Amino acid sequence: MDVEHWIVTGWRGSGKTTLCREIIHYAQTTGWDVAGILSPAIFEAGVKTSITAIDLRTGEERTLAHVRLQDETDLVFGNWFFNRQTLEWGNRLLRSIQSCDLLVVDELGPLEFNLSQGFVDALNILQSSAYLLAMVVIRPELLERASAMIQPTHTIELSESTSIPSILQQVTPRLDCIRRGS
User: How many domains does the chain have?
Assistant: First the structure.
């Protein structure tokens, strides 16, 4: 059976990570083996101040990026300071995935595509067949480049007005078909 690649795309604040979290929850409650990284934003007083990286198998969380320097080795990109140790941890985690049903990579962005840094090992595992479905979060400005590399079978485009429950109603039947192998 061929593996499927889904790209989840949308501008900042459109619900990409929220949708991934909901699909992950559905998959886990229906018996899928889920692996990879989810990267939710952390808000303080309504302002995005950091991003966490979560290992989807163990639940371990680490600070991925912060608006303030956290360590002298942080990788500076735009207004963000990325923790190099978390990036290395994430790449080790991705390399360690031998197989799973659902692989999630939230997200591949300018660090990976423009600087060959960040969660670059995700690009290698996405070329494997170690999973039934890979769901990858990609920013719209990188969609064309990522699509050429990942060759998605499905692209989910979100906007601020997108209804996450509506999207879930559309994709869960496909998840069930993938799981059954049909």
Answer: 1
Which amino acid, 162?
T
- Whole-number pLDDT of residue 182: 59
Identity of the residue numbered 148: A
Q: pTM for the full model? A: 0.94
Q: Tell me, yes or no, whether 126 lies in a domain.
A: yes
Q: If we measure between CA atoms, which residue out of 28, 86, 9, 29 comes closest to residue 54?
A: 86
CB within 8 Å of 78: residues ≥ 6 apart: none
Parent domain of 56? 4-40+51-61+97-180
Tokens (6 digits) for 113: 């595509």
Residues 6+ apart with CB under 8 A from 50: 41, 42, 63, 64, 65, 66, 67
d(CA 94, CA 96): 5
Domain harbouring 170, CATH code: 3.40.50
Confidence of residue 2 (pLDDT cuts 50, 70, 90): confident
Q: Is there a domain that residue 156 lies in?
A: yes
Residue 40 to residue 56: CA distance in whole angstroms: 12
Q: How far is CA 100 from CA 28, 104, 143, 180, in A?
A: 12, 10, 25, 15
